[in-house]
Write a structure and sequence with these properties.
single chain, about 290 residues, 2 domains, two-stranded antiparallel ribbon, binds coenzyme A, binds magnesium ion
């Protein structure tokens, strides 16, 4: 499932240990779910969470929501068993944390069914330096930004404008776009602050992310709104496409809409907006 055919506006983390949340997610309007066995699950609860999660996935009921399982790193005491139990229970991708290099991904490839896509947490400074090679790995279809870990590793301050993280965020997006894979922004920790979330979603959208990872159901609506094409974007895209076709038919290479030039590249971008709008409408069952 790539971002052209499936939206990833809202990507909700759910601790694999929380049965009630695992069940609740079956009716939440989130585009994707990251079922977490890593940092949201305490060491003592890891083994039970693995079984609880496997059972939830086997039972199904998650509809069109993309199902991504975050395992523990393979260097931990739990990673190998996570893959053994959850590598083949119907997830759409396995998300690998604490990746530094493409060879960390290779280690997982060796353990997974050949068709299982891999998503990667981008949360260490080394992963950001290696973003291009990690994104270009043949099995990697998505990058998830781990802003809390990055902030910790960098020793930077948490700022509302995320200036200290900007270079990393942009490298992650550039790497994903160069490889034509999905790019998801990090979480917004103050989960009851809807205005703050919206501001950060809009920043992530403007940077080019496909969507945002979320930690609480309260955050879903804001992310869905921020990362969907707006009515005026859809309207402009339609008019750009029409005007360009019209110009082309009369032998011209460019058109003008709302005082702005429209070249072929703008038409490509406009078509992408319309495709995203269709994917969102399908997700919402409209
Ligand atoms: N996914 C699905 N449902 C969730 C949820 C989530 N991430 N977080 C909370 N809920 C559910 C609760 O089960 C509860 O459902 P109920 O009303 O049917 O009982 C409802 O939403 C309200 O929850 P609330 O009481 O407001 O949250 P909380 O105070 O119990 O928990 C957190 C707050 C942050 C601890 C919790 O949201 C959470 O664990 N989030 C995920 C954290 C995570 O995965 N981190 C790893 C990546 S950073
Ligand atoms: Mg992390």
């Amino acid at each position: 499932m790539d971002a052209a055919t499936h939206p990833y506006r809202s990507v909700l983390y759910i601790p694999g240990s929380k049965e009630r949340a695992l069940d609740k997610a079956r009716s939440l309007p989130t585009d994707a779910i990251i079922f977490d066995l890593e940092d949201a699950v305490a060491p003592d609860a890891k083994a039970e969470a693995r079984e609880t999660l496997a059972e939830a996935l086997r039972s199904g009921g998650y509809g069109k929501r993309s199902k991504i399982v975050r395992i523990n790193a393979l260097t931990t005491a739990w990673g190998l068993e996570d893959v053994r139990i959850l590598g083949d229970v119907g997830a759409d991708a396995i998300l690998l944390p604490k990746v530094n290099t493409p060879s960390d991904v290779d280690n997982l490839v060796d353990l997974l069914p050949a068709t299982m896509p891999i998503w990667v947490m981008m949360e260490t400074p080394t992963s950001v330096f290696n973003a291009r090679e990690i994104a270009a790995h043949g099995r990697v279809t998505g990058l998830v930004t781990g802003t809390n870990d990055l902030t910790k590793e960098l020793g930077c301050r948490v700022r509302a404008d995320r200036m200290p993280l900007m270079n990393a965020l942009q490298r992650i997006i550039m790497a994903a776009r160069a490889a034509r894979i999905v790019a998801i922004d990090g979480v917004y920790n103050r989960f009851r602050d809807g205005d703050g979330l919206l501001t950060e979603c809009e920043q992530g959208r403007d940077l080019g992310f496909d969507g945002k990872t979320l930690i609480h159901p309260l955050q879903i609506e804001g992310a869905n709104r921020a990362f969907a094409p707006t009515a005026s974007e859809i309207d402009l895209a339609q008019r750009q496409i029409e005007a360009f076709e019209h110009s082309k038919a009369s032998g011209q290479g460019v058109a003008v809409v709302d005082g702005m030039i429209v070249e072929n590249l703008h038409v490509v971008a406009a078509k992408r907006i319309l495709a995203k709008a269709v994917a969102v409408a399908e997700m919402e069952g409209v």
